[in-house]
Amino acid sequence: MKQKNDYRSTSQQGMTTFLIIWFGQAVSMLGTGLTRFALLIWAYRQTGQATTLALLGFFSFAVFVIVSPLAGVWADRWDRRRVMLLADAGAGAITLGFLLLFLSGELHIWHLYLGEALTGFCEAFQRPAYNASMSVLVSREQLGRANGLRSLSYETTNILSPVLGGLLLVPLGLAGIMVIDLITFGAAVITLLIVWIPRPVRSAEGQAADAAQGWRALTFGMRYIAQRPGLLGLTLIFAQIHLLAALTYFGILAPMVLARGGNDELALSGVQAAMGVGGVVGGLIMTIWGGPRKRIHGVLAFCAASFLFGDLLFAVGRNATAWIAAGFTAAVFIPFIGSSNTAIWQAKVPQDVQGRVLGAAFALQQMTRPVGYLLAGPLADRIFEPALMPGGALSGSLGWLVGTGAGAGMGLMFLGTATLGFVSCMSGYLWPALRNVESDLPDADVVEVAVIGGDERVIGGDLLPELAAD
Predict the structure, then answer these.
(1) DSSP string, 64-79
(2) pLDDT by residue (tens digit) across 148-173?
(3) Cβ-contact 245, 368 below 8 angstroms
(4) What pLDDT was estimated at residue 231?
(5) Fewer Cβ within 10 Å of end Cβ, the chain: N or C?
(6) Residue 34 has pLDDT above 70, yes or no
(7) Using CA atoms, how far apart are residues 120 and 366, in angstroms rounded to an integer?
C-alpha cells in the first residue's frame, strides 16, 4: 500500500511540475503576443500591403520546418529542460535586438524578417522538448487535459494580446511593449530553473535511434512516421490544414479586416480577441472534459466544423460584428483539434524518441505553411483583390456573395478555404489507417516516475513488475 501511495504522490508531483512550467510559458507567450501584435501594426503602417504581413509568417515557419528534424534529435539527446531554457533565452535576445534597433531609429522591415526566421529556429527546439516533457510528467489519462491547458494558455494569449496591444500601443509605444515582453521572458526562464524533468526510460526504438548516425539519425523521425500509416495520415491531413490556414487566417486575415474596416485597429483587435475567447472556451471545455474518447474525431470532425462555419462567415461578413462572430466560431474548435492530435502522438510514440518523431511531424505537417504564406499575399494583392473591385472580372458573378471593393477579394479566398478545408477533413474518414489510428497502432510502453522506498526510479512497460516486486 505504501508503494501505491508513493507512486500516486510522484504522479501528482509530475503534474505540479508541469503546471509550473505551463505557467511560465503562458506568461512568456503573452509578452510575445503583445510584441507580435505591435510589430504587425507597425509593419502594415510602413507598407500597407498584405504581402508584407504574409512574409513575416513565411520566414518564421520556413526556418521552423527546416530545423525541426535536427532540433527533435537534440531534444531527445539533451536535457529537455535545458533545451527549453536555451530556446526561451534566444527568443528573448531577439526581442532585445528589436528594441535596440527601434530605439536607435534603425528598425526596418527586413529586420523583422530576419527576427522571425531566428524565432522559428528557437521554436523548432522549444516545441518538441516541451511536448516530449509533458508525456514524462503527466499520466496518459491526463494528457488530453494537459494539452487542453496548453491550448487554453495559447488562446488566452490570443484574447489578451490584441486587446492589451491595442490599448497599450498608444501610451507605451512599441518600445514599451517590447520591454514588457522581455520581463515576461524572465518568468519562463525562472520557472524552468526551479523544476526538474526526469529522463524517460530507454526503449528499443530509442536505442535504435541513438545508434543511428549522420543522415539516418536526422531522418529517424520521418522514417518512423512513414512506417506507420495512421501517423502518416495524421501528418498529411495537417499538412493540408496548415496550407489552407496560412492562405487565409495567418496570411490575410489582418489585412482583410483592416482593408474592409477602414484601417480600424480596434476592429482588428476585436476580431483577434473574439478568436481568443472562442479558443479559451474550447480550451476550458477540453481541460474539463479531456476530449472525445476517440481522439481522431477531435481532429477530423472538429476541424471540418471550424473551416465550414468560421471561414464561411469570414467570407460573407461585411462588418466587425460578423467577423467577430466568425472568429469565435472558428476558434472554439481549435483546442479540440490540436489537443486531440498531440495526445495521439504522445500515446503512440515512445517517450525517449518523441523529440525526434514530433520534430519530424511538426516539420512535415507545417512544411506547407510557408507555401501558403508565399501565395497568400500575391493571390490577394494581384489576383483576387483586383477581380472583386467594382467592374472587376469577378465582381458581377461573386460580388453579391462576398461584396466588392477593398478586402472583398480576400473574402473570396476565405470562401475557398471554407470549402476545401471541410472536404479535406471529412475525406480523412475515408482512409481506414487514419480513421482507426488509435486502435490499429498500439500504445507505447507506459513510462512513469515512482518513489520506491525513498528512491526515485524511472519505470515503464516491462519494468512495471519491478514495482510490484519491490
Answers:
(1) HHHHHHHHHHHHHHS-
(2) 888 788 777 767 777 787 788 878 88
(3) no
(4) 96
(5) N
(6) yes
(7) 12
Q: Name the pLDDT band for 207 (thresholds 50, 70, 90).
A: low
Q: Using only C-alpha atoms, what is the Rg of the chain?
A: 23
Reduce the secondary structure of 216-236 to three states and give it as a string: HHHCHHHHHHHCCHHHHHHHH
In this model, does residue 412 exceed pLDDT 50? yes
Crossing angle for the helix pair 2-47 and 50-77, to the nearest 10 degrees:
150
- Phi then psi for residue 332, to 5 deg, are -65, -25
**Hey, which of 200-204, 333-337, 351-355 has the most confident mean pLDDT?**
333-337
Q: Would you list the DSSP string of 368-406?
A: HHHHHHHHHHHIIIIIIHHHTSTT-TTHHHHHHHH-SST
Where along the chain do its domains lie? 2-469
Bridge partners (DSSP) of residue 459 are: 448
Residue of 153, 39, 137, 165 lying closest to 97 (CA atoms): 39
Distance (Å, whole) CA 298 – CA 292: 6
Alpha-carbon distance 301 to 336, whole Å? 10
pLDDT at 457 over 90: no
- Are the C-beta atoms of 75 and 125 separated by less than 8 Å? yes
Q: How far, in whole angstroms, is CA 408 from its chain's centroid?
A: 28
CA 142, CA 164: separation in Å to the nearest integer? 32
From 3.40.1800.10, 3.40.1000.10, 3.40.710.10, 1.20.1250.20, which CATH number describes the 2-469 domain? 1.20.1250.20
For 441, phi then psi, to 5°, come to -100, 120
The pTM of the whole model exceeds 0.90? no
Alpha helices by DSSP H, 194-219: 204-211, 214-218
Q: What share of the chain is helix, strand, coil (3-state, %, to 5)?
A: 80, 5, 15
Residues 335 and 394: their CA atoms lie apart, in Å, by 36
Name 385's Cβ contacts closer than 8 Å, sequence gap at least 6: 406, 407, 408, 409, 410
Whether the pLDDT of residue 470 is over 60: the answer is no
Question: Above 50 in pLDDT, residue 449?
Answer: no
3-state secondary structure of 262: coil
CA dihedral sign, ordered 224, 228, 231, 235? positive
